[in-house]
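ok new one. same drill as before - structure tokens go in, u give me an amino acid for every spot. 385 of them this time. try not to just spam alanines like last time pls lmao
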């Protein structure tokens, strides 16, 4: 721990809490995943639910207009309004939401949908005909029992594809999956095995469809941990990954990145010393940091975030141990280090807090403060559904 933590340099003179992005780290993370995708021979369809920012998305796609993956229709509308034209809405569609998706198609976008239910596919066909808009639809495959989708050899997969092909305003596009259980893997070997499990499941489903006579053009996988450790993606056409642009403490515990690869942090101000309880209090609490405690069951429990000096260097023994709505309480891992903590973090100084879960932390903000090493740029982000 440094003897003192200096007050913020001029470029960090913004109201706190603030959502800070290290531009150099962001660009390195983007380049790293581009290299992985190129080595594995798949297209990237980045999941923009993490960043929800067109400036960041354009850095990922090389300044183009897609392809991207979204998780809310609000995201889709925001990206289409800024010129993006190729979007996959990667949440099971229901008829009540089809009108908003249809409006995006009328605005000139290609919006692909996903389903995992026979009856829903039939209802979507009726709704699409009513809207007089044609959609490409993918079938969601459950690779690991984590969430939605059908198991790879479920006969309903073929039944859904048959219904999609028969519909006047739908066309079958392929299969997709998300290996969400990869977040529970421990160690590189376990992640490599899970990446193969993900690949195998979706390729098996595609093979079943082709045997039944369907052209399964899209075979899509998606998970930052599995993509980061995949050794072979034969049979896969695209990968949907998102949190890698920022990374977070959960990802560092998984071995996807190091703490020094985390591009997102919350800039906070020390507002009080509680010497009787051994706590430093900052103005970033449960709303600013989120209450995601995803590292609790991992090798290193970071509480509600790793505390760093204003220059981004981790103060290794300091973490946010408790949060109230607008208060974050910092404590050392070793209570005997409290005196040094108070000396290092005087009231009024600024710290950065690395998040457990970048997506959840960013959701509280409508603006990024992007640090290019010289000045801060304000980049807006969208929220809502």
């Amino acid at each position: 721990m440094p003897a003192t933590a200096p007050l913020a340099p001029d470029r960090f003179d913004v109201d706190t809490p603030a959502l800070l992005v290290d531009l150099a780290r962001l660009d390195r993370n983007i380049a790293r995943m581009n290299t992985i995708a190129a080595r594995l021979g798949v297209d990237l369809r980045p999941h923009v639910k993490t960043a929800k920012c067109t400036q960041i998305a354009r850095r990922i796609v090389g300044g183009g207009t897609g392809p991207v993956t979204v998780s809310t229709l609000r995201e889709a509308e925001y990206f289409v309004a800024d010129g993006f034209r190729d979007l996959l809405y990667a949440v099971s569609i229901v008829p009540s939401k089809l009108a908003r998706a249809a409006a995006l198609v009328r605005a000139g976008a290609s919006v692909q949908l996903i389903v995992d239910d026979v009856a829903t596919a039939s209802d979507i066909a009726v709704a699409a005909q009513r809207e007089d808009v044609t959609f490409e639809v993918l079938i969601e495959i459950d690779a690991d029992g984590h969430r939605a989708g059908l198991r790879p050899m479920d006969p309903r997969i073929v039944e859904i594809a048959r219904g999609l092909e028969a519909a006047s305003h739908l066309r079958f596009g392929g299969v997709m999956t998300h290996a969400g259980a990869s977040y529970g893997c421990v160690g590189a070997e376990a992640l490599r095995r899970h990446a193969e499990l993900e690949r195998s499941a979706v390729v098996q489903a595609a093979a079943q469809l082709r045997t039944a006579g369907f052209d399964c053009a899209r075979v899509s996988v998606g998970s930052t941990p599995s993509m980061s450790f995949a050794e072979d993606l034969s049979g896969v056409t695209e990968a949907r990954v998102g949190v890698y642009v920022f990374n977070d403490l959960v990802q560092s515990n998984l071995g996807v990145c190091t703490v020094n690869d985390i591009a997102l942090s919350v800039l906070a101000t020390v507002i009080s010393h509680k010497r009787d309880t051994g706590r430093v209090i900052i103005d970033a609490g449960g709303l600013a940091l989120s209450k995601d405690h995803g590292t609790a069951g991992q090798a290193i429990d970071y509480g509600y975030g790793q505390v760093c000096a204003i220059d981004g260097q981790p103060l290794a023994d300091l973490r946010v141990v408790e949060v109230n709505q607008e208060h974050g309480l910092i404590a050392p891992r070793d209570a005997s280090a409290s005196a040094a903590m108070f000396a290092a973090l005087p009231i009024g100084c600024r710290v950065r807090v690395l998040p457990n879960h970048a997506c959840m932390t960013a959701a509280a903000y409508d603006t990024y403060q992007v640090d290019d090493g010289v000045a801060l740029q304000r980049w807006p982000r969208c929220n809502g559904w």
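The first strand starts at residue 18 and ends at 22. and btw The CA atoms of residues 268 and 355 lie 12 Å apart.
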